[in-house]
Amino acid sequence: MNGNTHILVVEDDNDISRLLCSIVRRSGYTAQPAFSGTEALIYLKQQPWDMVLLDLMLPGLSGEEVLNEVREHGAPPVMIISAKGDQSGKIAALRGGADDYITKPFDIEEVSARIDSHLRRVHRAANSAKPVIYSHKNLLLDPEAKTVHADGEPISLTAREFDILHLLMASPKKVFSKSNLYESIWGEEFLGDDNTVNVHMSNLRSKLAKACPGEEWIETVWGIGYRLKP
Fold this sequence. Notes:
By secondary structure, the protein is α/β, with parallel strands linked by helices. The protein has helices spanning about 15-25, 35-45, 65-70, 85-95, 110-130, 160-170, 180-185, 195-210, and strands at about 5-10, 30-35, 50-55, 80, 100-105, 135, 140, 145-150, 155, 220, 225-230.
């Protein structure tokens, strides 16, 4: 989190706006004040926002109307900061799409902590949503799409072959014994019959060699097992 994190502060009271902006900036984020619902709408249309701090009682568009508009523009987390402390108002705002609700007067440290908490959650969600693509030399494996490419050309693998390669590429420095491989891929206890692993490994190596002649992808570590060739 840094100054590239942009927070829109929608608050018509000049002193409270300055205070909220200072809380945001003290945490290392960029704050943009908006003093009415109408002004907030202009900013919402100009760029994406990482978070919105929103008062409900605003000139121009009301806070509730701004909240509806926020949900149309990328759905960043919204923290309501309002003098309206009645339970029904809080519930209505939270049901209307707000992520949090703080009643004025507020504690500065609590507001700061809640901002950090919401941004961490969004950051974690964004990271977990990013697809992981494994690469080794000129080999690319996409676990989500279940595809493997060598030099940009697709390689057709069976489900077991794909799972073996995925396991090796996910831990490129690890040496997998045949029992490791069998129990990880087949999900059953390894009882010493290594023929199943040998056949699938042989087929996988053959397909990789055909895709990239002269390149060795998987090496046998004698007496131990297999790993990606460094």
